[in-house]
Amino acid sequence: MAARGMALLRRRGYVVPDDVRSIAQDVLRHRIAVSYEAEAEEITSEYIVKEILNRIEVP
Known about the structure:
The protein is mostly helical. It has one domain. The chain is built from 4 helices and no strands. The protein has helices at 2-9, 17-28, 36-40, 45-55.
């Protein structure tokens, strides 16, 4: 829904991958719980979201 809102702000009636990428950090960051082990290795929720987005192929 956030990507739809971003598309509307950009004056489009449809969502493109850039809309999803631009809003994904803000939407998903708080949904990922990082373990103590990951924190010790300096892995953050922002890093995890970024890695997920980088690994997904854009159609």
